[in-house]
Structures are given as C-alpha cells and as structure tokens.
Design a protein that fits this description.
Oligomer: single chain
Structural class: alpha+beta
Number of helices: 12
Radius of gyration: 38 Å
Order of helices and strands: HHEEHHHEEEHHHEHEEHEEHHEE
CATH superfamily of the largest domain: Histidine kinase-like ATPase, C-terminal domain
Number of domains: 4
Number of strands: 12
Shape: elongated
Distance between the termini: 122 Å
Helix content: 40-55%
CATH class of the largest domain: Alpha Beta
CATH topology of the largest domain: Heat Shock Protein 90
Strand content: 15-25%
Strand order of the largest sheet: 2-1-5-4-3
C-alpha cells in the first residue's frame, strides 16, 4: 500500500511539472494561444483586404504605378503592364519611363517632384520599339510617410492618343472653316473684277467676229489670240477659287456619289502653283470611265490633298509626282500617287500611320497628315497602302468601293 501511494504521489507531481502548474505556465500558454487565434483572424482579414485592394487597383482603366522613396517601382496594375511592360517592372527606376536619356532625374521628372511633396500634372509621348506611339496625361501625387521621411509617389497614366488626334482633327476642321470664310470673301472680291475682265474680253471677241474690218486689220492680228488667253485664264482663276471653296468647306458628314477624277482635278488646281515654283512635274493618267464611289467629298479631297502635299515635300529639287486612277481586280476604284522623292526607310514605314509620328524637322510637320488620311479612308470603307524604297520614291495607293447600283 505504501509503495502504491508513493507512486500515485509521484505521478501527480510529474503531472504538475508537465502541465506547468508549479510555475503558473498554463495561463501563459492560454494567452499565447488566444493571441495566435487573434493574429490568424487579423491575417485572414488582411489577405481579404489585400485581395480587395488589388482588385480595385487592377480595375482602374488608367495605368497606375507606385514608386518607393528611391524612385523605384513597387507596384503597377495590368494597364501599365500592357503599355510599359519593361519600363515599370518591379524595381525599375523612374528614369526608364520618364527620362531614359538622362542618368540623373531632371527637374521635370514627375516622380522626383512627387517624392518632394508636389502634385504634378503633365503630358508625355511614348514611342515603343515596336507598336504604335501613344500620348499620355500624367498625374503624380505624394503618398506621405507617417514620419515624413520616406514618402512614396503614386502615378496615374491616362492614354489620350485618340483624344489628341480628335482635337487635332477638330483644329484642322476649324482652320478649314476659317479658310472657307476667308475664301468666300476673297472669291466675292476677285470674281467681280474677273467677271468684268472676262466679259469685256468676250465682248471684244464678238466685235472681231461681227466687224470684218477689225479682223482684216493687220495691226490687230494678235488681238484675238490675246483676248482668248485673257478669257481662258479668267475662267481658270474662277475655277481655282471654286476649288478652294470646295476644299475648305466644312464637312457635314453627308455622303454622296463622288467622281474621284473630279476631286483630283479640283485639288490639283490648288497645288499646281507649288509644283511650278518647286520645278516639280505633275503627271496625270486618269481613267475616264471610272464608276462613282460613295463617300464624303470633303474627306476625299483632304485625302488627296494630304497625299499630294506629302509627295511634294518628299522631293528635294526637281522631280515628278504621278497621279493615276483606275480599277483594281476586285472592282474597286484606285487612286495611285507616286513621287520621285527621298522614300521611306524600312524602320519608319510601319509607323507612318501612327498619330504624331513624323520624319520631318521641327516645325515642318505635326505627324498627323497620314494618320488623318488613314482614318478618313477607313471611315469611307476603303483601303490605303504604301510601297517605298529609300532614294527611289514612294507610291501610295488608295482603294475605294464603288457605288452599288
């Protein structure tokens, strides 16, 4: 019995040591276990909030990038990944996106200014190695650190390429509208004296026909020829003014049957003076029996004008521009404008349709002519393509669907 009692007493002692009753550890472990449960619940809540914030972050239609206090990328959403896949990789410097040409951040770096506590709004253009160039509005704000020592920068990038293109097209339309108002006034002032000149010249020609004595006078042998030139050139001036009015008239969006040869002849009247001044020969080969196309006359005039002006600007010195119309194998009306200019490099030829892309010097072009031309042709249901070789000129081909009878 005594041995059994001793064993029982030893077991209770061992149990006390095992449970920690001798130094009150059981309460401590209970508190730790409670804290662990609380931390697990808090961690679950944080993961839920993190997923929620990530979903909100990715649902923003603008590009969003967070830079740390050293100007390095911490986070980005999927929009930035689409537009700036390499420039906004985690750990990349703000230099990669905003100032790749400068080793140190210039004064206009939006990230550096945001880290300094400023709110920045600016625009940037981005031309990737491959693909279409874009324009972005940039807004950079400060994410303040609780101690004010390690601020971060929150950057929003909004794609405004289409907006800029529409704005430039609107500006161009307003310019044409202003030209139209000016041309209408000039036409009125010029047409009146031109009518008088042509009228009196025609009256003199009638006198030559009615009074045989005048026609037989050897001193007046050249008069009829001179008068015919005056009448012809007077009506030619009137035709130029009418073409200018037609070209500058603001488009109303209405479509009608268009004879492309008539449109080309109208535009040629406006550029012939430049051809003579620049010693550029204009060659025409217009098929006479072309069917009409259905479209916006003002838009098609702008297409032809843009392509002809580009052809002229590609030629340095003497050269030629050749305009050809005809039918394609797929029964589409074709307008082909070929020049003997400098040509387009292989690197640039895929980018010439991009808005704001230009190979011309500063102040010589906005890079919108061919972008606007491309959009107009597509809007009218047509196609446009280019063939070019450096030093051997370029050939632009516009194909338009014919009117369905």
């Amino acid at each position: 019995m005594s041995k059994l009692a001793v064993r029982t007493k030893m077991d209770e002692s061992s149990l006390e040591r095992l449970l920690g009753l001798d130094n009150s550890k059981i309460g401590f472990y209970a508190e730790v276990k409670q804290k662990i449960h609380e931390l697990e619940a808090a961690n679950l809540g944080l993961r839920s909030k993190s997923s929620e914030f990530q979903a909100l972050f990715d649902s923003i239609i603008d590009g969003v990038v967070v830079y740390d206090n050293r100007g390095l990328v911490q986070h980005r959403n999927h929009v930035c990944q689409n537009y700036f896949s390499q420039q906004t990789l985690s750990g990349s410097s703000c230099r990669e996106l905003f100032h790749p040409e400068h080793k140190t951040a210039p004064n206009d770096c939006p990230v550096e200014r945001a880290l300094a506590g400023e709110k920045i709004e600016m625009s940037i253009s981005f031309q990737p190695t491959e693909g279409t160039g874009r324009y972005f509005d940039v807004t950079a704000t400060t994410i303040e650190d609780s101690k004010g020592e390690q601020n971060r920068a929150l950057v929003f990038l909004r794609d405004i390429t289409e907006k800029r293109l529409q704005e430039m097209q609107l500006i161009q339309a307003e310019k044409l509208s202003s030209i139209g108002v000016l041309a209408a006034g000039v036409a009125h002032e010029i047409n009146n004296p031109l009518s008088s000149v042509a009228g009196y010249a025609e009256a003199l020609l009638r006198r030559f026909k009615e009074e045989h004595s005048l026609a037989e006078d050897p001193r007046l042998d050249d008069f009829q020829k001179y008068l015919q030139v005056i009448v012809r050139e007077s009506y030619r001036c009137k035709g130029i003014i009418d073409s200018l009015l037609s070209f500058s008239r603001k488009a109303d969006g209405a479509v009608s049957n268009i004879n492309v040869n008539d449109v080309i002849n109208e535009v040629l009247e406006l550029v012939r003076f430049k051809s003579r001044y620049d010693k550029i020969e204009i060659r025409t080969n217009l098929q006479s029996d072309l069917p009409d196309v259905l479209g916006d006359p003002t838009g098609l005039r702008q297409v032809c004008m843009n392509l002809l002006i580009n052809a002229h600007q590609a030629i340095s010195g003497e050269g030629y521009v050749e305009i050809t119309t005809g039918m394609t194998k797929k029964s589409m009306v074709m307008i082909q404008i070929k020049d003997s200019g400098c040509g387009i490099s292989k690197e640039a030829i895929d980018q010439i349709w991009d808005p704001f892309f230009t190979t011309k010097g500063v102040g010589q072009g906005t890079g919108l002519g061919l972008a606007v031309t491309y959009n107009i042709v597509k809007r009218l249901g047509g196609q446009i393509s280019v063939e070019s070789q450096v030093g051997k000129g370029s050939k632009f081909i516009v194909r338009m669907p014919t009117c369905q009878k």
